[in-house]
C-alpha cells in the first residue's frame, strides 16, 4: 500500500475535495446535528460544535499519522464544507482500506456521492495500490448500498451484531470491490 505524500485537491463536477480544516467545524455541525444524518452513523446526533471540532481533529490526526485520509467535500465555487469522505481502517499488510462518507442532506439524491465513491475507488486502486476497497453499512441503509453498488461494489454478506453503536449491537453489511 502506498500512502500519498500529500493529500491532493480534486474537483469532481460541482464539488471539490480538499484537506479538512478545524474551522470546518460549524459546517460539519450544521448537518451532523440532524438525526437523519446520524441515523446510520456510529455517532449520536451532535449537540455542540465541540463534537464537530473533535471529530475533525481525529480525522486530521489519522491523516497525519498515515492511519487514514479524510477529505472535506466543498462546493467548487465556495469553500463551504458540505460533506466528508475518505479511507480508514487501512491494512497495509493486506492492501485494503475501508471507505466512509457523509453528506449534507440538502445534497442527497443528486448523484454527488456516487461520483465521489467512484473517485475514492479509483484513487485507492491507482494511487494507493490497494487490492481491496470495502465498506460496512447498516443493512437497512438502502441509499448507501445503491451508491456503492452503482460503483461495482458487491455485497459479501451480513455480519450479525458486528458493531456496538449507540448502546446496542447492530448488523453490518460488508460490501467490497477488488482491483482486478
Automatic annotation (TrEMBL):
Keyword tRNA processing tagged: no
| Database matches in InterPro entries | Acyl_CoA_acyltransferase, GNAT_dom, N-acetyltransferase
A GO molecular function for this record?
A: protein-N-terminal-alanine acetyltransferase activity
Task: Give the top-rank taxon of the lineage listed in the UniProt record for this protein.
Answer: Bacteria
A Pfam family per the record: Acetyltransf_3
What SUPFAM superfamilies is this protein classified in?
A: Acyl-CoA N-acyltransferases (Nat)
What is the name of the protein in this document? GNAT family N-acetyltransferase
Organism, scientific name: Myroides albus
